[in-house]
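Justification of resources, computational component.

The compute hours requested in this renewal are based largely on the per-chain cost of generating structure records like the one below. Each record pairs the submitted sequence with a full structure-token output. That output is archived, and it is also reused by downstream analysis tasks.
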Amino acid sequence: MLKLSDIYHPKKTTLAEIKYVDFAGLPRGFGREQGFGGQLLNSLSTSDAILQVVRAFEDENIPHIDGRIDPLKDIETLDMELVFSDLTIIEKRLGRLESAFKMGKSSERDAATREQGLLNRIKASLDQGIPIRLQQLTPDESRAISNYQFLTAKPVLIVINIGEKQLPSGQKMLDGLKTAYSMPQVELISMCGKLERELAQLQEQEAEEFRKDIGLEETAFAAVIRHCYGLLGLVSFFTVGDDEVKAWTVRNNTPAIQAAGKIHTDMEKGFIRAEVMSYDDFIKSGSTAEARKHGLLRLEGKTYTVRDGDMINFLFNV
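The structure output for this chain reads:
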């Protein structure tokens, strides 16, 4: 996107924003013996997805909390801790519902009965280690429990942190973990945190050349963002001009008329059409005029599905 700013020289450049909240490891017994709360609980509960960094590297100077290096075991342990957290929430809520049966009005008791039935069904699956995201809830049921912000209902990105010596065999290790641990709404990727930290200290061109030499196509940071977007079903499109070059984030399969409304409600109300070209086509062409000349600039209607990397100029009349 910064290339667009270099071309248009706008007064303002607004990048897409994604926020990560980092916690340096979870305490032993997380979600069980000692429970958890405060900032950790709030951040996990209000997040759109959970990113787990799992250790796979060996380093005698950095002992593992359990005295062994076993990424699959760590993943399964983290899963169970999140399940225990959700079970705790459900058990507390079921206790409150019991009180509602005794003191509530008839209409309130009916609602409490439905909620109790749903929570007991979810609890039974959680007791078997099945996260909520895999429980095949109906859209109405998912909405009914959305306020609880259950942790196992969220998609998960698992980053396997390997050592530099493991780089040649890193993909094989990752493939093995994917085979052993595969489920919907969960993705696994690998990175070498130590190497990425060292590369971040180099000049951009030098770091890029080094990555190419060792077969890395993108930075770990870029890979994490790309996979998070995929898990959350998000895409970004661009609007450009002298005043501002801006990235807008919308849900996948968003029609053009709704994307226009993301910018301003007047654009949605008075939508006429959208002029669309891909970022890659624009960069290759060098200008809008050249892109238009080669038929790379398209006119799309209100039902056009916005794609990741689209550059869009919305035409509207109010």
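The domain at 2-15+234-316 is CATH 3.10.20.30 (Ubiquitin-like (UB roll)). Residues 31 and 85 are 5 Å apart (CA to CA).
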